[in-house]
Amino acid sequence: MTLTELTDDEFARFLALIYRASGIRIAETKRVLVSNRVRRRLRATGIETFAAYYAFLTSPAGAGEMPAFLDAVTTNETYFFRDQPHYDWLGDELIPGLLSEAAAHRRPRSLRIWSAACSTGEEPYSIALKLADHRAALLGWRLSVLGTDLSGAALIAARGAVYEERALQRVDAETRKKRFDEDADGKRWTLKPDVRSLVAFRSHNLLKPVDAEPFDCVFLKNVLIYFDANSKRTVVDNVLGSMAKGGFLVTGPTEGIHGMLGSLARIKPWLYQRTA
């Protein structure tokens, strides 16, 4: 049997399911994309029709298929040092400021950062690269970078830490040489273990609170564009609940959450701080 596209009813049911499971609102113009992605799961599971797959996915027997389904219908696109000013602030302002506070005994020698939608790892590893640049000054500190994502496939790729040229387009030659191992044909680069060891990865749905110690800084970027207002409010509440006093929130240019951050002090258009 050859399947073409989802019918109007099937498409609506899958969109509603995606929203219920992840909070992500897929545009109604994406029928071809969703049809193609669901068709992949039909081939993988051996199920013949969209309707039968939906019935399986929403049954108790299909609970284990849901992560693979969400992997298939969500897109992960990123690269190292996306939004360069954010990483300049991290390396030139945040880390030196924390070092000064610790030297004056105003804070413990620890730094916890959460990359709240880490995709295939470029964002948390960019953070780790900045920490590695200050490794000597941070000697003896308890450093922790947590990368979370809903996509299991993305997290597998993140843990592998192997990247092609597109992902490294903003990584300079010196950093590539110092922090990456290049393969024989120069087409792929593997992040070295000393940087990889700074980052831990975990599956997490942003619609739920994260089970972790409070974070000194949270990166919440380039993800909430896919959420509606109610889902954004839930995510923001969860993120704010995860921040330590004095902690910072780094947002992307398209998140649309400025009006939800009234409890935070605005430092820059994309940077907020939780006051004591």
From TrEMBL:
InterPro entries referenced in this protein's UniProt entry, alphabetically: Bact_Chemotaxis_MeTrfase, Chemotaxis_MeTrfase_CheR, CheR_C, CheR_MeTrfase, CheR_N, CheR_N_sf, SAM-dependent_MTases_sf
Domain of life: Bacteria
Biological processes annotated in GO: methylation
One Pfam entry name: CheR_N
Domain CheR-type methyltransferase per the UniProt entry, residue ranges: 1-276
Coiled-coil residues: none
Keyword entries, A-Z: Methyltransferase, S-adenosyl-L-methionine, Transferase
Keyword S-adenosyl-L-methionine annotated: yes
GO molecular function, one term: protein-glutamate O-methyltransferase activity
Catalytic activity: L-glutamyl-[protein] + S-adenosyl-L-methionine = [protein]-L-glutamate 5-O-methyl ester + S-adenosyl-L-homocysteine
Known EC number: 2.1.1.80
Keyword Transcription regulation applies: no
Name the record gives this protein: protein-glutamate O-methyltransferase
Originating species: Paludisphaera borealis
GN (gene name): cheR2
